[in-house]
Structure formats: structure tokens, C-alpha cells
């Protein structure tokens, strides 16, 4: 499969590369086999000799790596966009546990919810997603199967929780919870075992919900299971003020210390939120290789303070973005990108005000680090940064030879009319806007700020074009 057109990717934090008029080739297994300017002798020979049609990415359009969502509660998609008026610990019992319990009791409903979720992810350009499921193994196998059939990279976690504020939604003991976790891991692996390696898109994830729902015995066992089978781990850490107070009061330690003690902070771990981690803790998880799923929208609802994004990046923490459905109400990672920038700018404004004295001068000894991130950095977090945090195959999130071809086809303006697509408008001084030839960086920025699903022409994961199931 061959493409010709403009490619856009962010290989490093803050770096936006626009590769104008390139040829990109994808092999039979879905890996990028060739990337080069279309005007080189080798590319021209490929174009001339190609026996299959070359997919043209027209002027005003570009290919971009797919988005990665590092934190999404699949069963909570059932009530997305409602129930955000309560503090975290009350919200869990009133909404989250109830929704998860209802899907565990109704496999037909679970299938319907998960298929619609897959549709929405594809519409919004999400090619890889880290999912929290429910406590019932069979329901999580439905989730894994639906995601595999949809052609999405999905890392599915069966919840482990032997403590609960909802008496009807809890596992009987640490031992039974560990048995169920092991059974799910085996069944999830068996789901794709008959497929070639490059087609196995779904993997199991060890998923202690968070410290308040897991005994020390359960956490210890999950840490050993993750090490034994070299599994990814996900959970919530240092998210909300009421949750942090509960953990200190009941367990006599902070989240980060408890997870570390039980072997659950590893290079294969993604912890959501981490809003209450200060500089020493951020340095500690960077040293351990643990990644963070930054979910700015849900943090606005459930955390008393924002995540220290700039400080985490400076310390080398791997960070990606998450929607946190349904603690966040928007399944589109583009929303998370925009919110991450807005929150960071508010943090920078607060820093400036705190460091400025009554005379408008910067106070002596004030920090000079700019806490704001820009749109290019946010785009990196949504693509390459998320891929690194998830531990995806080498090169994911970039257009480089050997990387899986995970891409979305974005249209900014019409090649024939020059008019913007969807909500995008362009007001050229040139009377003939249809003659516009160059995809400028400010056009990409406009799409980043205003674009939506109407700009997305298609999406590929591992070289296969995906569509709504």
C-alpha cells in the first residue's frame, strides 16, 4: 500500500515536522517500509513501477499518527456526560460502580455499549486505548473481543477490587480476585493466540482500581502476577483530596509508597492523574519508568489541584493524555489536548502572580520555569508521547521505517474550492483560494484548535483501514 502527500508528526516534545509531498509505503504486515520525498529518483521509480493505485493525500490534507488515550473507563461510557456534581468517593458509589455492575449483569448491554464506544474512538482518531473494564471476567472478554474486531489497539484491564463501598459490587477476597485476574489474562491472550503476531491488537492489563478498593494482600499478589507474566499495570494514583486523606488515614501511607511497596510501579505501569505528586515523587516515578495518564478535564472535576505537567516532563516522566470517561465527559483526545494547554497556561499565570511583588517586579529567588505547554507539545503527548507511555511497538507515533502504520487522514481545506472543512474557515487575500498549494503550520494549528470528526477522512491501525463496527 502506497500513499503520496503531506505527513505531519511530532517525533520529540515541542517538535512539529511537516513532510511535504512524501511517498510512504506500507508492507503486508502493516509496517512502514518506505518514507521519502516523492521527487527523489527512488520515489519516482516506485511511482512508475507501482502495480497498485497510490492513495493520494490531496492538497489541504495530511496524514497524522493516530491518537493514544491512556485512561478510559469503558463501562462508564454508559453514562458519559452526566453525574459530575459529586466528590470522587461519592461519585464512584453513586454512578461508576452502579454502571459497571449493570454491564456485568447484562452482556447484551455490555456489547452494545462497547461497540458504540469503538465507533466513537474511530470517529475521533483514537487508534490505541488503555481501558478499565469491570470486575467480571466474561464482560471484559466481550470488551476485548469488540476492540479486536474493530481493529483498535486496546489494552484491557479487568478490575481487581476486594474492598468496596457498594456491597453488591466487590470480589469476595484477595484470593478470589487474584484467581479471576489470572483467568482473565489467560482468556484474553487466548482470544488472539491463533492470529499472526502483528494482528494481535488486544492485550490484558493488571488493574487494581486504586488503593482504597484493594487490600495489601491483593496488591501484593497483583504485583507478583504482573512480574511473572510481564504484564502492563494501570491504576489511579494521588488523584483527589478526599481519596488521599482516606488512604493516609486507613493505610498510614501515600499512594505512591503503597504501589511501590507491592511492585506495581514499573516501566510497564501507567498511573492516571497523579495530581498530588510533588517534585520528589515525580523524580521517583521517572526513575522507576512509570508513566502518567494526564486527564485535565476530569481533574477539573475531581482533583483539588492540577497535574504538574511541566515539572513531570522536565524530570523525564513519560506522559500521555487520557479522556477518563466518564470522570471526563469528552471521548475526543483533541479535547484533552486543548484542556491540557489551557490548564497549563492557568498554572503559569498563577506562578507569575505568585512571583510578582506589589511593585510589579519579579520577587528575588522566584522560579523562572515556564509552566505552560503549547499546542505542539500537546500534539506530541497525544501521539508520540502516548505511544511511548503505553510501550507501543518501536516508532509508533511517528512516520519512520519499521514503525506500524497507525495513521489518520485529516482534511483542512478542499483542494478544489479552497474552502475550509468542517468548522475551519480561511480568508485569503488571493481572489482564487483554490490555488492555495501549501499546508502551512498555522493551518494545522487552526485544525488543532477548531477541528473535529468532520476533518477526519479515515484511519488505519497496523496498516488496516478501520471503520465503525
UniProtKB/TrEMBL annotation:
Quote the InterPro entries the UniProt record gives.
Amidohydro-rel, Metal-dep_hydrolase_composite, Metal_Hydrolase, Metallo-dep_hydrolases
Q: Which superkingdom is the protein from?
A: Eukaryota
| Gene Ontology molecular function terms on file | guanine deaminase activity; zinc ion binding
- Alphabetized UniProt keyword annotations: Hydrolase, Metal-binding, Zinc
Species of provenance: Postia placenta MAD-698-R-SB12
The record's listing under Pfam families reads:
Amidohydro_1
Tell me the organism's taxonomic lineage: Eukaryota, Fungi, Dikarya, Basidiomycota, Agaricomycotina
Q: Can you cite a GO biological process for this protein?
A: guanine metabolic process
The name this protein carries in UniProt is: Amidohydrolase-related domain-containing protein
Q: Which cofactor does it need?
A: Zn(2+)
Cellular component GO terms held in the UniProt record: cytosol
Annotated ranges, domain Amidohydrolase-related: 62-410
Amino acid at each position: 500500500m502506497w500513499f503520496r502527500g503531506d505527513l505531519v508528526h511530532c517525533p520529540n516534545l515541542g517538535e512539529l515536522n511537516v513532510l511535504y509531498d512524501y511517498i510512504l509505503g506500507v508492507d503486508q504486515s502493516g509496517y512502514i517500509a518506505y518514507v521519502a520525498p516523492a521527487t527523489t529518483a527512488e520515489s519516482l521509480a516506485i511511482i512508475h513501477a507501482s502495480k497498485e493505485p497510490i492513495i493520494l493525500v490531496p492538497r489541504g490534507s495530511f496524514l497524522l499518527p493516530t491518537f493514544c488515550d491512556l485512561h478510559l473507563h469503558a463501562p462508564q461510557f454508559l453514562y458519559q456526560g452526566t453525574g459530575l456534581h459529586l466528590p470522587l468517593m461519592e461519585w464512584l458509589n453513586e454512578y461508576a460502580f452502579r454502571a459497571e455492575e449493570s454491564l456485568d449483569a447484562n452482556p447484551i448491554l455490555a456489547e452494545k455499549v462497547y461497540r458504540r464506544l469503538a465507533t466513537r474512538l474511530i470517529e475521533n482518531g483514537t487508534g490505541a486505548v488503555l481501558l478499565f473494564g469491570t470486575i467480571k471476567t466474561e464482560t471484559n472478554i466481550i470488551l476485548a473481543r469488540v476492540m479486536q474486531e474493530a481493529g483498535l489497539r486496546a489494552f484491557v484491564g479487568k478490575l481487581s477490587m476486594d474492598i468496596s463501598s457498594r456491597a453488591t459490587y466487590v470480589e469476595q477476597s484477595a484470593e478470589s480476585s487474584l484467581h479471576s485476574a489470572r483467568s482473565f489474562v489467560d482468556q484474553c491472550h487466548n482470544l488472539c493466540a491463533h492470529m499472526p503476531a502483528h494482528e494481535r491488537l488486544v492485550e490484558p492489563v493488571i488493574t487494581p482500581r486504586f488503593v482504597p478498593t484493594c487490600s495489601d494482600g491483593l496488591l501484593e499478589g497483583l504485583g507478583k502476577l504482573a512480574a511473572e507474566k510481564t504484564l502492563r499495570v494501570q491504576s489511579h494514583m494521588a488523584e483527589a483530596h478526599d481519596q488521599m486523606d482516606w488512604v493516609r488515614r486507613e493505610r498510614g501511607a501515600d499512594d505512591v509508597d503503597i504501589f511501590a511497596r507491592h511492585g506495581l510501579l514499573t516501566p510497564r505501569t501507567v498511573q492516571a492523574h497523579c495530581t498530588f505528586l510533588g517534585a520528589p515523587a515525580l523524580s521517583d516515578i521517572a526513575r522507576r519508568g512509570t508513566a502518567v495518564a494526564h486527564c485535565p478535564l476530569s481533574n477539573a472535576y475531581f482533583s483539588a489541584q492540577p497535574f504538574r505537567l511541566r515539572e513531570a516532563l522536565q524530570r523525564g516522566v513519560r506522559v500521555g493524555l487520557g479522556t477518563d470517561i466518564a470522570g471526563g465527559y469528552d471521548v475526543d483526545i483533541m479535547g484533552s489536548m486543548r484542556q491540557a494547554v489551557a490548564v497549563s497556561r492557568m498554572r503559569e499565570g498563577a506562578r507569575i502572580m505568585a512571583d510578582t511583588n506589589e511593585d510589579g517586579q519579579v520577587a528575588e529567588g522566584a522560579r523562572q520555569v515556564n509552566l505552560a505547554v503549547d499546542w505542539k507539545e500537546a500534539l506530541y503527548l497525544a501521539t508520540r508521547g502516548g505511544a511511548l507511555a503505553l510501550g507501543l511497538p518501536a516508532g509508533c507515533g511517528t512516520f519512520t521505517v519499521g514503525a506500524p502504520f497507525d495513521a489518520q487522514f485529516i482534511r483542512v481545506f478542499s483542494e478544489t474550492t479552497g474552502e475550509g472543512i468542517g468548522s475551519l474557515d480561511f480568508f485569503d487575500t488571493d481572489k482564487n483560494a483554490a490555488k492555495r498549494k501549501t499546508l502551512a503550520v498555522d493551518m494545522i494549528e487552526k485544525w488543532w484548535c477548531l477541528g473535529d470528526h468532520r476533518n477526519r477522512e479515515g484511519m488505519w491501525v497496523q496498516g488496516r483501514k478501520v471503520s465503525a463496527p
